[in-house]
Amino acid sequence: MKTLGFTFMPLKKIKAIRGMHDITPDKSGHWARLEKAVAAVFATYAYREIRMPIVENTGLFHRSIGEVTDIVEKEMYTFADRNGESIALRPEGTAGCVRACIEHSLLDTPQKLWYNGPMFRYERPQKGRQRQFHQIGAEAFGYTGAEVEAEILLLNAKLWRALGLEKSISLQINNIGSSEARAAYRQALVDYLNQYRGDLDADSQRRLETNPLRILDSKDAATQQLLEGAPALSAFVSQESKEHFARLNELLAAGGVEALHNPRLVRGLDYYNDTVFEWVSDELGAQGTVCGGGRYDGLVEQLGGKPTPAVGFAMGIERLYLLLEAHDFAALPGSDAPGAYVIVADPAYQAFAFEVTESLRSALPEFAIMQHLAAGSIKSQFKKADKSGAKFALVIAENEVAEQTVTIKNLHTGEQSIVSVSKDTTELAAALK
Ligand code: HAM
Fold first, then answer.
1. How far does residue 24's CA lie from ligand 1's centre (Å)?
2. Is the full-model pTM beyond 0.90?
3. 278 CA distance to ligand 1 centroid (A)?
4. Handedness of CA 207, 213, 216, 217 (dihedral sign)
């Protein structure tokens, strides 16, 4: 652009980091209502909220998630702070939650906790997969029986119903036994797959050395076919683990929760034993897992606490949001639209308008009021009121100011009435209910 002889160079715009997204106002209302619905379900199961820092010592994740997992090997945001200490943006919430519970001696009695917040993984972004994403998770400490898994899965099922998603999400469960059982199985699987090493996909060949159980998750058709003849994990699982799994299935059936036994389900984090589960949807494309979790009885001790049984799960809010969006947010309680739009015919009446709206906001604390704060004809203000989605327009014009009244128009039915505010706004508030 040439202006008065010098060249104006527009500055390059700075954009958000790849895979990290703003939650713009058109989305934040739905987002907040989703969080509110989840919090309400947690409250009915007597889970209490815990808030942990977003950064932790890198070693915490190495010791919990596992050195040879995808997360620790290639997805962590790790940096040295000004002291040279290695710090990581948390890739998940379980490790930090266990660290906090040990640090604050919370585990002398059973605890049922939940958390909500951003997590970070350096993955290839695609639909339903970000580098900054959000999880709502829960962890229950101190319970050995399958009852706690059953209650957690009932809680999940209740939540899907509250969000109108019960037909879109289904449950897969497995029992992966103890770490000893898995070590024996790992050897048997490696012995078997080594015979076909050359036929495995490249990722699985690498995993044969590092994390062979993850080969069970491979999406490669040839690898999947080879796995048909592989030894089964269930053959290595103890009688005790089998009984635990049977009890869980019994409780789920009694609670009306349908669960598919997927013997290949192993999960991508190392800390699990016995029960693992995933809630999956086929409406999301490749990133179909909405929620995952399981039992992890060894982790508390592994991080320096007293041996404490534990079970937990986390769900991806972005994935839940995508599902809700596909259903037009129909089942999400509440709405973004203001309850009333206040039309002020002339700026001279704004002081009176403020008196009315301030009093009304005190009388109806949950009711959102959008007061017109600029100039504009009554007609254009009515258009804005319609566009806002408000049910009521409250008109303040010359007559209203003179008579100390407000004209209410129901924008859905067209019905109109005049209410006195000369004493207070009680009558007006009642008319808006
Ligand atoms: P996870 O399976 O790694 O488990 O993650 C749980 C959920 O977070 C996934 O099912 C998915 O919905 C969401 N998620 C994961 N990565 C991404 C991503 N890059 N973009 C969007 N969403 C994502 C855990 O994190 C365990 N801490 C769960 C747990 C709690 N186990 C026991 N307690």
1. 23
2. yes
3. 10
4. negative
